[in-house]
Specification:
It is a multi-pass membrane protein. One of its GO terms (cellular component) is endoplasmic reticulum membrane. InterPro entries: Acyl-CoA_deSatase_haem/ster-bd, Acyl-CoA_DS, Cyt_B5-like_heme/steroid-bd, Cyt_B5-like_heme/steroid_sf, Cyt_B5_heme-BS, FA_desaturase_dom, FADS-1_CS. The chain is mainly alpha-helical. It folds into 2 domains: about 280 residues, no CATH class; about 100 residues, Cytochrome b5-like heme/steroid binding domain (Flavocytochrome B2, Chain A, domain 1). Helix content is about 50%, strand content about 5%. The protein is built from 23 helices and 6 strands. The strands form 2 sheets. A 4-stranded mixed sheet has the order 3-6-5-4. α6 packs across α7, α6 crosses α8 and α6 packs antiparallel against α12.
């Protein structure tokens, strides 16, 4: 049995469809780019790729000329050569020097505030005018299009310090700084999705006109501003153009190299990213890299007011001017958890380098009679249910030897816990190191907390240590040998 579904007649536009605005082949390519490339990757993608993707053979001196990326080589060698030649033949005017610094920050912010924090990490929303401005400024840094740059950077974050990281810091400082651009990679970088950027009209515009933009923003704009402004055409080209471009290049490269080499790890030490003010100064604020790798979608790199991060302040000012919105900030509570984790880890390392009081479970239990008998042979006192051998300390006691001598063979608990003197943390810690036994009957009521040395009351314990008890052994051993 079949049914007939009545359909509406086609409209004239459907009967005679107009030609598509985009050729079918180009439309198919665009739709393909908008599908996330990492949609169907296996869960063990990194291990699977390393196992199944055969790397290129190692580079040797004889094969080096075939393995060079000549386009990057030309850009990274000819530009500084031009700048050096200009430095020897063209006088630097103060106006040009100032303009070079200003343009360095303009194009640098195109990378840090634009390529990096806006497009690679989506840490805030930018208005169309700001997006166009950042796309053009970033073009002036001549570091590839937004889409190309972000694809590599997202791979770097996803596969940090692995063989799929395009600028893997484990391959050495110079590899992560510049080598990865000069030599063809031995492996393809790990897959990273940029489908969101393929939908972005401004990203597509910059990608389409990239060659014209790098010529215009990289050299023509700085040259024309200096030439039309104060007649220094040559200075504008050599200093604000070529020399400034060298500084912008290596400023950005330091994020891949110096930021993984210099500094400390206040949030996580699992990977190589580090925080350091020198790197921040060299990279327009991108130097607090340990924070950034932990909280990559935060629009800040520096979270303290005194830390150098002009990119953060630029984005904040743009928000105040209505050019940016939805600035992403990770919850302070989560940031502090990261800091606390590393603080506890360092405390644990310090703790493991110290010697603490003997384990209560390993001390023999001694009767009162045995304790008094052995006190006639050496200086033993009872404090808080523990037997202490104070022989080596009698002569060094700050209150005088007589205060200890009169309590040998006796219970000095009251005197120690404030009856004569309320002893310091140092005294409690030191006394605990002299424990040689536990008086039968255990700790006196009310002294449970006081009998734990201050250095161990906040002891850092791993999760698998939390269940271990601190009770005394149930065995009774009165032999003198175990006390001595």
């Amino acid at each position: 049995m079949s049914t007939v579904v009545e359909t509406r007649p086609l409209s004239p536009s459907k009967v005679h469809p107009t030609p598509p605005l985009t050729p079918p082949l180009k439309m198919d390519k665009q739709l393909k780019e908008e599908v996330p490339i990492d949609m169907d990757i296996p869960d063990n993608y990194v291990a699977w790729t390393i196992k199944n993707q055969k790397p290129l053979p190692p580079v040797t001196w004889s094969s080096l000329y075939k393995e060079l990326n000549y386009l990057s080589l030309y850009v990274l060698t000819i530009t500084p050569a031009i700048a050096i030649w200009g430095a020897f033949h063209v006088k630097l005017r103060w106006e040009t020097a100032l303009w070079s610094v200003i343009y360095y920050f303009i194009t640098g912010l195109g990378i840090t505030a634009g390529y990096h924090r806006l497009w690679a990490h989506r840490s805030y929303n930018a208005s169309r005018p700001l997006q166009y401005a950042l796309a053009m400024a970033g073009s002036g840094a001549v570091e590839g299009s937004i889409k190309w740059w972000c694809r590599g950077h997202r791979a770097h974050h996803r596969y940090t310090d692995t063989e799929l990281d395009p600028y893997n810091a484990h391959r050495g400082f110079w590899w992560s700084h510049i080598g990865w651009m000069l030599i063809k990679p031995r492996r393809k970088p790990g897959v990273a999705d940029v489908s969101d950027l393929s939908k972005n009209e401004i990203v597509r515009w910059q990608h389409r006109w990239y060659v014209q933009l790098i010529i215009g923003m990289g050299f023509l704009v700085p040259t024309f501003v200096a030439g039309l402004g104060w007649g220094d055409w040559a200075g504008g080209f050599f200093y604000a153009g070529a020399a400034r471009l060298c500084f912008v290049h290596h400023s950005t490269f330091c994020v891949n190299s110096l930021a993984h080499w210099l500094g400390d790890t206040p949030f996580d030490d699992k990977h190589t990213p580090r925080d350091h003010v020198i790197t921040a100064l060299a990279t327009i604020g991108e130097g607090y890299h340990n924070f950034h790798h932990q909280f990559p979608m935060d629009y800040r790199n520096a979270i303290r007011w005194y830390q150098y991060d002009p990119t953060k302040w630029f984005i904040w000012v743009c928000q105040k001017l209505g050019l940016a919105s939805h600035l992403k900030v990770f919850p302070d509570n989560e940031v502090k958890k990261g800091q606390l984790t590393m603080q506890l880890k360092r405390l644990r390392e310090t703790q493991e380098g110290l010697v603490f009081a003997p384990d209560v479970n390993e001390l023999p239990i001694i009767s009162w009679e045995s304790f008094q008998e052995q006190s006639g042979k050496r200086a033993l006192v009872v404090i808080g249910g523990f037997i202490h051998d104070v022989s080596s300390f009698v002569e060094e006691h700050p209150g005088g030897r007589h205060l200890i001598a009169k309590n040998i063979g006796k219970d000095a608990t009251t005197a120690f816990f404030g009856g004569v003197y309320d002893h310091s943390n140092a005294a409690h810690n030191w006394l605990s190191m002299m424990r040689v036994g536990v008086l039968i009957g255990g700790t006196q009521h009310g002294l449970d907390d006081k009998n734990i040395p201050p250095s161990q009351r906040l002891r850092i314990a791993r999760y698998n240590e939390l269940g271990s008890g601190n009770a005394s052994s149930t065995a009774v051993e009165d032999s003198e040998g175990l006390l001595g």
